[in-house]
Amino acid sequence: MRTIDSLDVKGRRVLVRADLNVPLDGDAITDDGRIRASVPTITTLAERGARVIVCAHLGRPKGKVAPEFSLAPVAARLGELLGRPVAFASDVVGDSAREVAEGLEDGEVALLENLRFEPGEESKDGEARGAFAARLADLAELYVGDGFGAVHRKHASVYDVPRLLPHAAGGLVVTEVEVLRKLTEDPARPYVVVLGGAKVSDKLGVIANLLGKVDRLIVGGGMAYTFLKAQGHEVGNSLLQADQLDQVRGFIDEAAKRGVDLVLPVDVLAATGFAEDAEHEVVEATAIPADREGLDIGPKTRELFAGKLADAATVFWNGPMGVFEFDAFAGGTRAVAEALIASGAFTVVGGGDSAAAVRKLGLPEDGFSHISTGGGASLEYLEGKTLPGLAALED
Ligand code: ADP
Ligand code: MG
């Protein structure tokens, strides 16, 4: 991949695809990690005299203008973090975008409105996507792909625009790929992967691929109950992906065959309901009462998992161990995060909620080797899939 050093950007309009998809509460940004991660590339380009036009998406407005998904609050925060004004276009490729793009002087920065207000951005129809991509490309002379969190999407701004303009990968994408390559090519051993969270079916693909690579696979969070059920235990009202049980049984057999140490919870916090103040007690993972749901791993499990991480040389962690948004059920996630920090291993955290958990729990971000801005993107990379946004930057 070419880096931005290879582009002659002075005095030229450079379209930067960034990932600014941050969680919002009304207009308030609750976690600005992705904006901060986008700052270095934009700053470098501006300092080199580029006229920087940033584009990004926010949420899922599905091709329609929806004020609650406006990037306006993000433009304000980006300006604060850059320490330079950010002109904001009130549309994506319309009159405002053209006017803002044409008005830029060397070293100035603008942000376009949410790409996903335009149906062409995510269209499955190559022609519709291409037509939108052409209008986007028309705003600029060069393209920089720096939105790592979106590189697994075959979207106009990610996949089609770099085929229309001379392009390079931004520093964030270069760093993310370097880190993930270390995990896929020749990880120092023991190599331990910790999986949790709620999106079980999304994460099964990565398990199939990882069983051939890891020494230990630790499964916690909402995912673990499908594994416990597959082993024949009752899981009460816990999160369960009933249609994946056969596949999960296959993973359990495969792990045994390959000598991968598959580590599951031995106790859980079983709650009366999904609520911050739900009554709860510690129960054995093999004896979850029918009217309870597991919302966090229990104390014995925290110790077990920490022990399995203590001698690791490489760790990839994706997915919280419990419903960390509720203080009463954040302890398991905290214990695992602390075990990663204490391990001294090369540690990578991937996943929007996992990264948010690290910050919410007040853990030091520099306690980890790398916190990825991409959840889906990092998992698909580890699965060995070709990511459209990276492929487009390679050509
Ligand atoms: P990431 O964004 O890091 O990839 P996911 O999106 O897969 O992680 O999952 C995060 C969500 O999983 C969190 O909102 C958390 O509350 C939820 N979760 C974790 N453990 C459980 C559980 N035992 N039951 C229900 N939800 C859970
Ligand atoms: Mg998530």
UniProtKB/TrEMBL annotation:
Keyword terms, alphabetized: ATP-binding, Cytoplasm, Glycolysis, Kinase, Nucleotide-binding, Transferase
Compartments reported by the entry: Cytoplasm
Residues holding substrate: D19, L20, N21, R34, H57, L58, G59, R60, R116, R153
Catalytic activity: (2R)-3-phosphoglycerate + ATP = (2R)-3-phospho-glyceroyl phosphate + ADP
InterPro entries noted in UniProt: Phosphoglycerate_kinase, Phosphoglycerate_kinase_CS, Phosphoglycerate_kinase_N, Phosphoglycerate_kinase_sf
Coiled coil regions in record: none
Entries under Pfam families matching the protein: PGK (PF00162)
UniProt family annotation: Belongs to the phosphoglycerate kinase family.
Subunit structure: Monomer.
Name this polypeptide is given: Phosphoglycerate kinase
Species per Swiss-Prot/TrEMBL record: Sphaerisporangium corydalis
Annotated gene: pgk
